[in-house]
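fyi for ur records
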Amino acid sequence: MGDRFYMQLALDEAWKYQLLTYPNPAVGAVVVKDGAILSIEAHQKAGTSHAEVLALLSAYETLSQTTIDFDRFDAQKAHEFLRQLPNDFFSSCSIYVTLEPCAHRGKTPSCAMLLQYLRLKAVIVGMKDPIAGHGGGVEIIRSGSNVPIVKTGVLEDACKALLEPFLLWQERAFVLFKLAQTTNGRIGGGYLSSKESLRHVHRLRSVCDRLLIGGNTVRVDRPTLDCRFVGALPPNVTIYSKSETFDSEIPLFGIEGREVTITQKLDFLDKPSFILVEGGEGMLNALQGHIDWLLIYQTPKLSSNELSYNIDMNLTFLHQRNIGVDLMIWSRQLGN
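which gave:
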């Protein structure tokens, strides 16, 4: 097993939290000692411990056969704990990270400074940070008194694909179209997704800047569009519709504290943000030129329902995994 194998493990873990870390990027990390995997972790939520820190904490627990007694997602406490370990504790360990460790201090301390201090055997990075002013982590690690082996560019293209939403929402809206369908491509007829898929959708709703939905879907489905399955605050909603006439009793209008806007324009997509789109064939057609990625929840079921996405669109699959009984497929329009 080589560098590519361990980096793929880090990538697979990071994809589990893709977009859930908004406005931070999805990042995965793996710690290895003498070929044995000590931990596989990923950044999970903005403002909390980064992937490298979570991986090091889990590796500590594996090596010491103890459990930490503080909140591992508290980045400040996590950094302080790791820094008080014997300075050779991780000296035989290598860490694999999909993105260059952060050089700057923000809501969390610098991971590059931490890795320099801990003196690991090797630091292997999937890709260097492409954001101007954010890089420099590799140079910090290399500048330590006990310089580890530092490699970059391992599975770099796959790491770039993982990072794509983060790069796009630096400049404009990143637009994700979510759809659920049966194995034979049918939609409608009630919930199609497993409970795990439904919870995942609600987690995405809880972090997006705005949920975009078509007027016809609102009138026909009369949705609530909240985050009740994960106990989070509901997203603000924009309804894309030529007509502003809606039944005020439709549940989505009754959510306290929610902002609902109705528009015929899409100029708000010029603003850096994360926009989640839910809708049917009409909405998919209307937004074809604006959609960055599609997230498909495919349930193992055949259906006689006549509704489907009757549209021509070529896709590139970026990543897929099982979620409950469903297959979750991240994809991009071919040519985007």
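The radius of gyration is 22 Å. thats all i got for now
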